[in-house]
Each structure stands twice: as C-alpha cells, then as structure tokens.
UniProtKB/TrEMBL annotation:
It comes from Candidatus Wildermuthbacteria bacterium RIFCSPHIGHO2_02_FULL_47_17. The keyword Oxidoreductase applies. Keywords: Oxidoreductase. Gene3D superfamilies: 3.40.50.970. It comes from the Bacteria. GO terms for molecular function: oxidoreductase activity; thiamine pyrophosphate binding. The keyword Oxidoreductase applies. Residues 64-206 form the Thiamine pyrophosphate enzyme TPP-binding domain. This is Thiamine pyrophosphate enzyme TPP-binding domain-containing protein. InterPro entries: PorB-like (IPR051479), THDP-binding (IPR029061), TPP_enzyme_TPP-bd (IPR011766). Pfam families: TPP_enzyme_C.
Length: 295
C-alpha cells in the first residue's frame, strides 16, 4: 500500500461500479472522504449527481446508510436524523450531508443556514462543481464569472458567492476548503479528520472538477483541480472558532489564464476579461491575508 492510500483510505466505503461520469471529481473526493469518516456514518444526499452515482435500487455504491433527500431540505433532514440518534444513545455516529452548490447556495440555503445557526452537530460537505450539473449545467450561485452554462450562453455576468464568509458569519466551530490534488493530499485528510473530531456544525467546501460541465478531457481532472489551487482561484484555508488560517501557499503562483484556457466553458473570455478575473483572484487572496492577520 502506498503512502497516499495509507493516509486516506481507512475503509472502502464508496465502491467501484458507481455511475459517475469518467473523470468525475465527486467520485474521487467521496471515495477518500467516506474512507476517512468510516462506516459509522449516515449520509444525507439531496438531489444531484451523487444521488445518481449511488446506482439503481436495490444496488448501491455506498457501503454505509444513505438517505437520498429533496433539494431544499438536506440540512433539516440531517438535523432530525442526528436528534434521533441521540435518543437512541448513538451520539458518536457521524451524520454527514453531501450537497451540491445548487442545493447549498440556492435552493437549500434556508435549511442550510438554519442548521448552521442552530449549530447542529452535523458535517456538511459542499460538492462544488459550480453549476446544476445533474440537470444539464444551469448556472448556480457558485458559478464563476464568465463561465458558460446552458442558462448563461454568453457567460455568467455575476460573481460567485463567497459562501465561506457567509457560513463563517453563523459563528460555527469549523469550516475549511478542500481540493484533492497531489500537493494538498495531507491538507485534505487533516481537514476531514479535524472536522470529524469536533462537535457542532462543520462546513467543508470541496472543489469537484466536472469534465462534461467544465468542458475538458476526462484525463485532466486532477490537473484542473491542481491549477485551481496553484492559481489561487480556489484558495485552501480554514476558519476554526473564528480564527482564519491559509493552509496552503503555492510555491509558484500560476496565472489564472493557465487554468481558464483548458476549459471550454471559458472559451469566450477576452484578454481583458482574463485580466479582470486575475485581479479578482488577487483581491480575494489579499482579503484572506487580512482575515488571517486580524484573527
């Protein structure tokens, strides 16, 4: 067993034979997250790609209990499951939500926000593939500026929601961003383990590259994810009890153009728009630096 497997795969919970697309970032992320959390976990998964990936009843790609839930109510449902487990004396069983950006940032935001406000004892994973991919790639609140979707054929004219700072305003004990790419494997595993060891509402924002939605060849999933991190488009950080910390600093920052040019969804970008995108990324990083220095 290699070093990567020793670090990540404790149990084989997410099984081969799932129905995810080739190169799906979700499948890579879920395999390792589920393995880290182990079998004593109940997954609550609202409508989205992961519900299809589970397979058709009576088969399942998950070797642990899974509840497939409505778009708008995953966090509320998870809160009820956790309350029931406490009554049964099983408070140590993890209750985890794996929800897409549409369910989290848009349709399910009310239940999500309410659960965070109550500090419900659940793990909440945002599977960020940056659009409503399961229903045909419509824009969501997590779609980046300029990205092509079926509802923004000329490119989205709205910036992506800063969901981390929105969640942090709920004063939850822990939030973090994660990306499964070789330079940050240890960062990924440590954050999942740190979140699992705590109580209360924990929010983990996971980048999930999507070949058909982002329009890149299936063999580039890990490279696209790495470029998102190395260009600081998707910075890695955590906020624990109100204290912000950048957890990964690229040794050599990659220009955002290197990330954008590999994806057909940004094919309409002009040089001026690429420069605007770069400035936005730089400003976001500077804001993270300020948050860390003021914590």
């Amino acid at each position: 067993m290699g070093k990567l497997d020793e670090l990540l795969a404790k149990d084989d919970i997410f099984l081969p034979g799932h129905r995810a697309c080739p190169g799906c970032g979700f499948a890579l992320n879920m395999r390792h997250v589920a393995g880290l959390l182990g079998a004593d976990t109940i997954w609550i998964i609202p409508a989205g790609c992961p519900t299809i990936c589970a397979g058709r009843w009576p088969n399942s790609a998950y070797r642990t209990p899974v509840e497939l839930e409505l778009f708008a109510s995953a966090a509320a449902y998870a809160s009820g499951v956790k309350a029931g487990l406490r009554v049964l004396g099983r408070s140590d069983t993890q209750v985890a939500v794996w929800a897409g950006d549409g369910s989290t940032c848009d349709i399910g935001f009310a239940a999500f926000s309410a659960a965070a406000e109550r500090n419900e004892d659940i793990l909440y994973f945002l599977n960020d593939n940056q659009a409503y991919m399961n229903t045909g790639n419509q824009r969501s609140g997590a779609t980046p500026y300029g990205a092509w979707t079926t509802t923004t054929p000329q490119g989205s004219g709205i910036n992506k929601k800063d969901i981390a700072r929105i969640v942090a305003a709920h004063n939850i004990p822990y939030l973090a961003t994660l990306a499964m790419t070789p330079p940050t494997v240890t960062d990924f595993a440590q954050k999942v383990n740190r979140a699992a060891e705590q109580k209360g509402f924990r929010f983990l924002h996971v980048l999930s590259s999507c070949p058909p939605g982002w329009k890149f060849p299936i063999g580039l999933t890990v490279k696209i994810t790495r470029l998102a991190v190395e260009s600081r488009i998707f910075p890695l950080f955590e906020c624990e009890n109100g204290k912000w910390r950048i957890t990964y600093r690229p040794r050599k920052v990659v220009p955002v153009a290197e990330y954008l040019k590999l994806q057909g969804r940004f094919a309409r970008f002009t040089e001026q728009e690429i420069e605007m995108f770069q400035q936005s990324v730089n400003s976001r990083w500077e804001e993270l630096e300020r948050l860390q220095s003021s914590s």
